[in-house]
User: What shape does this take?
Amino acid sequence: MVMLLKVFGIAAVLIGALWIGQGTGLILWPASSFMLAQTIWAYIGAGLAMLGILAIWRAGSRR
Assistant: This one.
């Protein structure tokens, strides 16, 4: 269970960071993405990243 939380947490943080970058227009990849410069995706990415951080923290406290 701990390993699953860590894997989910790391993936969520990385995907959330990508979505924040795309939503704010800092990452313009892929060029045809509908998420580019759409602020709502920055907020959704921040929420996903926070969920990932919570999962990593929870995995660390279960030892």
In short: Residues 2-61 form one domain.
